[in-house]
Amino acid sequence: MHPLAEKVLARDTRATARACRLADDRAGDHAAILKDLFPHTGRAWILGVTGNPGAGKSTLTDRLIGAFRKQDRRVAVVAVDPTSPFTGGAILGDRIRMQAHFGDPDVFIRSLATRGALGGLSRSAMDVARVLDAWGADVILVETVGVGQDELEITRMAHTTLVVAAPGMGDEVQAIKAGILECADVFAVNKADRDGADTAVRDLELMIALGGEVAKASGRARGHSAAALHARAAGAAAPLGGPSEGPWVPAIVRTVATRNEGVASLVEQLEGHRAWLFGTEAGAARREERLREAMHVQLRDALTDAAVVVLGPALEAAVHAVARREIDPYTASERLVEAFRAGAITPGAGA
Amino acid sequence: MHPLAEKVLARDTRATARACRLADDRAGDHAAILKDLFPHTGRAWILGVTGNPGAGKSTLTDRLIGAFRKQDRRVAVVAVDPTSPFTGGAILGDRIRMQAHFGDPDVFIRSLATRGALGGLSRSAMDVARVLDAWGADVILVETVGVGQDELEITRMAHTTLVVAAPGMGDEVQAIKAGILECADVFAVNKADRDGADTAVRDLELMIALGGEVAKASGRARGHSAAALHARAAGAAAPLGGPSEGPWVPAIVRTVATRNEGVASLVEQLEGHRAWLFGTEAGAARREERLREAMHVQLRDALTDAAVVVLGPALEAAVHAVARREIDPYTASERLVEAFRAGAITPGAGA
């Protein structure tokens, strides 16, 4: 076993931080370490926390850490949202509010680097979560900003997804992306002491009642088809996510994170989802589906990594040919895939 | 040439809508159509419009359509944000405000479907934009919500990226993701008649002055390193995006989209960026860099598509082996990549 993997299993904080960093950067012996750690993972409950900026996601995450620590569970946080105080502050200003858990050896907080164009963020989140699972986390909170494709991938990697909304932000509820809506297991209406909390709860209830069909129809709406969407919504009565998602109906909990109100109820609902996920056939089906998605992502990334290395100069030549419009990018990428499969191109060839 | 491609080039509205849909769904003869259209693309100016929900992005986009139409340019809109009124309404409520351009044959508005886990959204946006380029659009506005990896990919596909912020939304400016910040060519501080507009402008000026180093440092900040980040920011004086990005300095324009104020200045700044991009060496370098990224995305998606088809049952077997923890997902995906390359697995084998 890799010495760093051994130290992670021995719960060495510094080694765990280093393993997280290697996993995030895909540097050093990250592959060997992750392979060694994998048999020691699968124990942690991965809890996604998502929602638009300003909903109080980070404060609520902080309260959840506190609640889980009271139960003497080890907690890890993977912060993917770069605007989160967990990531070490926003671009301007000192926004670190999470000082409370700094000295606690059973809380491990890790932020992820932002990525370039090739979608490594969800892979990083998955790999870092695995390191923290092996470290011995009972609960891993993965905090994301909740909009965008890669965020959706991360959300889908969680066992249980909490979506945090807040009243008084105008389009807050409507701004919850259809894709995230389909992933939501529990909603927290945070800042529930504010005007508009009832409306936010009612909107969410309506969305849940209208069911996954609406989310899908909305996401797939063509042109200006609001009328058609409404007609469809009016006739739809399927449970959220459709029959394949099983009988879990998303819960809605009111919270005031700043005053620690509603957090116990929230934990209860989250645990309810966990019990469903690990204790029912529908839950098992959901877990398998998520695992399949994760494996697809893993394969996609492995393919891309390998292809960039193997194709090297051929890829560069294709870029220039497309730039000069000598070839269309569709044909060019088909040929690159063929070359990659045929092994006709070796590293350095054509350089 | 494919008959549908011919009709797109003849500017047949119905055929263009159909070609967009096929490109978005990757259905029918989409590949043949896109290949046929590609030689007729490259003329349109692709303008990304991004920003958090509530900043007034859609209203400003609407105003930009109006401004470009006054110049008698053909305009296309690709709406990627499912909460946008352009996509046919949000989940609840009738939010279509864009009625003004409905009857105009020189405005083509197209919304995209939301996608599953495999990141097809940016590919769809790129392909649909190419169809609309071939249709004869002079300007293609691509509206995204601006947070998340896939959104970043879409932003990077644009020639010029406009980031819309608004005062009075608390963390609005700070919530602009570091990745998007690095892509921003022009900022609109919309709702500039509201309290806090000066602060928003000042914050943006500061961010631009601090330069790309801060954006990078923020994105890559580890743990709680705000102090380190500030120290680094204080010493940093590089232009935004670093020297490789060339001398374009993002412009800031105040707008009140609802009253059509500041829109002319905004168009002027956007045109300024366009002139830089197509008229300078630094601009040419930027275009090449973006093209390379687009080609990587294209290749990644082509690889994934091919691998899912070719590997089929082997991929499914790997999912189950990982679920039973008989193999770790890293080794499993390496083996799948090898099998894909060696062609050892044929469709249907092992089923």
Number of helices of chain A: 13
Shape of chain A: globular
CATH class descriptor name of the largest domain in chain A: Alpha Beta
User: Assembly state here?
Assistant: homodimer
Order of strands across the main sheet of chain A: 3-2-4-1-5-6-7
Specify the CATH architecture of the largest domain in chain A.
Answer: 3-Layer(aba) Sandwich
CATH topology of the largest domain in chain A: Rossmann fold
Quantity of strands of chain A, as a count? 7
Straight-line distance between termini of chain A: 38 Å
- Rounded to the nearest angstrom, the radius of gyration of chain A is 22 Å
Order of helices and strands of chain A: HHHEHEEHEHEHEHHHEHHH
Protein name (chains A, B): GTPase
Keywords (chains A, B): Chaperone, GTP-binding, Hydrolase, Nucleotide-binding
GO molecular function (chains A, B): GTP binding; GTPase activity
Family (chains A, B): Belongs to the SIMIBI class G3E GTPase family. ArgK/MeaB subfamily.
Describe the overall structure:
By secondary structure, the first copy, chain A, is of the alpha/beta class. The first copy, chain A, folds into three domains: 1-40; 42-279, P-loop containing nucleotide triphosphate hydrolases (Rossmann fold), CATH 3.40.50.300; 281-351, no CATH class. Chain A contains 13 helices and seven strands. Chain A has helices at 3-9, 13-25, 30-37, 57-70, 121-135, 149-157, 178-183, 197-210, 212-219, 226-235, 263-279, 281-323, 329-342, and strands at 45-50, 75-79, 107-111, 139-144, 160-165, 186-189, 251-254. In chain A, helix 2 packs across helix 3 and helix 9 packs antiparallel against helix 10. The longest helix of chain A has 43 residues, at 281-323. The two termini of chain A are 38 Å apart. At the A-B interface, helix 3, strand 3, helix 6, helix 7 and helix 8 of A face helix 3, strand 3, helix 6, helix 7 and helix 8 of B. Chains A, B: Keywords: Chaperone, GTP-binding, Hydrolase, Nucleotide-binding. Chains A, B: It comes from Sorangium cellulosum. Chains A, B: Belongs to the SIMIBI class G3E GTPase family. ArgK/MeaB subfamily. Chains A, B: One of its GO terms (molecular function) is GTPase activity.
